[in-house]
Structures are given as C-alpha cells and as structure tokens.
Specification:
Blueprint lengths: L1 H15 L5 E6 L2 E10 L10 E7 L10 E4 L33 H13 L9 H9 L1 H16 L3 H16 L5 H13 L1 H4 L4
Antiparallel strand pairs: 1-2, 2-3, 3-4
C-alpha cells in the first residue's frame, strides 16, 4: 500500500515538474513497470541522443532501490552492453548508497549526471574505462558514433514514421482505388512532377 501511494505521488511530481531533459511514464498502466527517456547532455558525446530506460519498481520500494537499465545502447564506462548501470544509489548498503528518502526523479537525475561525467574508477566496461582515461579523443568519437547509430532518429526516419501513421489512420476511411487516384492527381500538377517519379 505504501509503495502504491508513494509511486502515485512520484509519478505526479515527474509529470508536473520533470527534471530537465528527463521524462518518465507508466508502461501499459502498470505502476511497477515504468519507462523513461533521458536526453543526451549538451557538450557531451551523447548530445542529440534520446536514451530509453526501463524501470522496474520492486515490492519493497522505497526500502529497495528501483531496478533501472538502458534499453538504448550507449557507449559508456559505467553502463554495460545489457544496459545495466553502475551507480551507488542503485544498490543497497553496505555496497551501495540507496536510502528510502531517495526517489525515481533523484535516481534519473543522477543517471543523467553520470552520462555527462563518467566514473572510470568504478567501471562496468573496463575497456571503455581505459579508453576514457588514456585516449579521451577515441572515447569521444566512439561515444558520438554510438549515439548517432542508436539514439538519434534521422529526419528521414521521422518523416517515414509520420507517413506510416497518417496512412494507417486514413486507410480504413479510403478505398485503395481512391488512394491511387489521389496520388496520381497529386503527381499530375506541374510543381509535383519533379517529386513524383
């Protein structure tokens, strides 16, 4: 009961006053299964990226920390290929620093900070940590490439998904013949001929 009440308050706070660059919502209206998005920090190799996270809230929350992992691949010394995050507030004492006074907003803000300020002395990915320490330029280039590949959506992808969504909304109302005739008539105008080949 305490968990549900607390989560309702936290979700309301996240909806009304989200931390900068962070959004969080319920997945399929389940209170213990959340999703979050973190925008890559400006002046970091993650700039322009949108990183999706999964948050599983345990039964004993807030006495146990939420289980959070990245769904979007990220090149980072403290985040492994499965998306697990090495952050002290995600673990119980004595190894960790989780306290019931912390909340999901605080944890997401800490993860956002960790993205811009990696901790190479407590890595999950030793090779990336070594690269971060001894070849910073290579690390920055690799992190930018991963961000471009996995965490950004090109304009072409945005337009394509928008068109698919619009088409799926229109198709039930229009027959195939109507759509073909509209496409032909749209391509018959002089200005459209250069685009419709």
């Amino acid at each position: 009961m305490q968990r549900v009440t607390r989560l309702k308050k936290e979700m309301q706070l996240l909806a009304n006053q989200p931390p900068p660059g962070i959004s969080c919502w319920q997945n399929h209206d389940q209170m213990d299964d959340l999703r979050a998005q973190i925008l890559g920090c400006v002046n970091s190799p993650y700039e322009g990226g949108i990183f999706n996270l999964e948050i599983v809230v345990p039964e004993r929350y807030p006495f146990e920390p939420p289980k959070i992992r990245f769904l979007t691949p990220i090149y980072h010394p403290n985040i492994d290929t499965a998306g697990r995050i090495c952050l002290d507030i995600l673990k119980l004492p004595p190894k960790g620093a989780w306290k019931p006074s912390l909340n999901i907003s605080t944890v997401l803000t800490s993860i956002h900070l960790l993205m811009s300020e990696p901790n190479p002395d407590d890595p999950l990915m030793a090779d990336i940590s070594s690269e971060f320490k001894y070849n910073r330029q290579s690390f920055l280039e690799n992190a930018k490439q991963w961000t471009l590949k996995h965490a950004t959506q090109t304009k072409k992808d945005e337009i394509s998904s928008c068109l698919k969504e619009n088409r799926s909304q229109m198709e039930p109302a229009l027959s195939k013949d109507t759509l073909i005739s509209r496409k032909r008539s749209a391509c018959d105008t002089d200005s459209a001929k250069k685009f419709c080949l």
